[in-house]
What does this fold into?
Amino acid sequence: MIIFIHPFLALSQNDTLKTIDLQEIGIRGFKELSPVTSLQERTFLIPIGGRKTEVIRISDLPANIAEKTGRQIFAQIPGAFVYDMDGPGNQVNLSVRGLDPHRSWEFNVRQNNIIINTDIYGYPASHYSMPMEAVERIELVRGTGALQYGQQFGGMLNYVLKSPDTTRNFGFENMTTFGSFGLFSSFNAIGGRVGKWTYYGYYQNRTSNGYRDHARSDSDAQHFSLTFAANEDLSIKAEISRSTYLYQSPGPLSDQMFRENPRQASRFRNFYSPEIWVPALTLDYRVGPNTHIQWISSIIYGKRGDIAFPGNALAIDNIRPETNSFAPRNVAIHYYNSRTSELRMLHEYKLGKIKNDLSISSRYFNNINDRNQRGRGSSNTFFDLSVDGNFENELTLHSRSLAFAIENQIYIKDNFTVSPGLRYENGRSDLTGSIAYLEERQVPQEILYDFLTLGVHGQWFNDKGVRIFGGISQANRPVLFQDLVPGDPFARIAEGLQHSLGYNTEVGIENRKHKYLQYNLTFFRTFIGNRIGNLIDVEAGQTFVTKSNIGDSQTDGIELWLNGVLYNDSKAKISIFNASSYMDGRYVAGTLRSGSENVSIVGNRIESVPEWIIRTGLTIELGRFKSLLQHQYVSETFADPLNTIIPSPDGAVGSVPEYHIFDWNSSFSLSEKYVLRFGVNNLLNRQYFIKRPTMYPGAGIWPSDGRSVVVSVNVKI
It folds into this structure.
């Protein structure tokens, strides 16, 4: 972009007009060298120095954002493991460093810095899911950033929504998307500024028939925010968000079924639908030149409904001759009411000549999670949550906790910082209710949380963009509601479950400012003691899943990100990126029962942890045209800690083969107001699957999508 200024200056003296012509000045602006950058040293009132951080600017991505194709959105995040599970674009399932991607629940997930994990103690999955068309950028802080955000092993994942053009009273944006398999998405947003008031809102609706048979998906989402800037130091923001979808779940497949036809369904009467509301109030106040306070109060309110015909992929859901009707389905309805209040303060001060950033925060959490399971549903074929009689499981988990965190970033020199910190969290969950197929004494009554986590981070950097960083931080994963309650008679819970405690450590070097080659090289270790996992038993052709502490795991790895600018001038740019990770994730302690024997799993690979994830892309920009050809390789993984290779008849266990996927996405900017996007996902139509889940949505193979075409038109007025 080039801006030319050719003004004249008029001066008046004694009624005489004097004119001075100024020489023409050319100001040339350049785009960022890569769509991925890093966070500032102080982000959301938290000293972030010494951590590995990444910021993905969504507007710069030629990616399939309507369906939230994770391998494209997180393409330049080395080690990002994305799992396709809930149909086109309903959820983001992301993990890093050998963790579980299920609904990103190993992260502290946020929107505009507001926590959106449904229930951090009961079920920390993020059922709320905003449209990616509304997101301006995604911020990721790896595991060693857990002290301030919470003690999750994954770290923090923050989706920052778009902000309005404050130079206008009213602005409008529309993005309409059409694609294969009946995809249609319409995103509409308004925003602007009137006096001291700023507003932004959107409405999105998306429908798709799905790649597989009986995999229809309908979703919609809304958001509205209103900000009042009382003065330069004080602002108050109120916002409310909602997301919901109805997904017809086609069921898992066995290996034989997958080979015969990966698009077939084993179910056509299974449905899943969450509806989540997130109202929030944010107070931002700069007390003085050196002190900044932020208070956020938010609620996650809603429910999810699940209808399923039980059994594995081999169980056939047909009309029963004796009744001339289908069997009744199982119905589960979960209600969520999570209330969170977070207060943060950042204070800049000096001790002698040494500058410091002191961050203090507190978080209060109060949640009621009602779980109703195994209700006798109807024999209908459509979405119907009606229940005949009572639920077999009727449980309530009431959780309360209070956490405090303190961290001090010390500038030993202007370019050398050390940040020690700690976090203390205390709370409890009371479980009440009944489970029909368990004796009442077996229902846990109380879960205590008493965690003290410590950490320290440091960094050195120079004016040429080189930064060396490293740190270590403790982390934990508490025993969750779903760990203590078997979902059906085929699920089992081991006695004496314990919290998982461990740590994250990393050291790396990066330069994101070099003109021709930007890079990040990181070595890491994630240790999880008393890891909670699933033990798989197959008896008489039926798979049983037992939740248990299965041992200690350790993932050592290397993450490498390279972005090379091969050619760059005002008319064209050619660049190539590589985001690779090597993960040696293994059990270092643990014994499991296999048949009638106890078998050591020491040295076995952690389930669903690929040794290699490699993504490479070539980007060409010619004026207003941008095109990206991307390749992703993911190596073989295992579905269980025993590293079973030969698949079971129902596909619940066995190896997951390696796969290669090519994607091609392009965009053309007709002007600043009109942008056309075109993409081909899975260019070579590879038939593959990512993992064999042992929990929702069902044990077995869940095929990923084959080749599809997506076209989007973006209009801004």
About this structure: Residues 255-260 form the longest helix (6 residues). The longest strand covers residues 542-568. DSSP finds four helices and 41 strands in the chain. Residues 1-20, 22-30 have pLDDT under 50 and may be disordered.
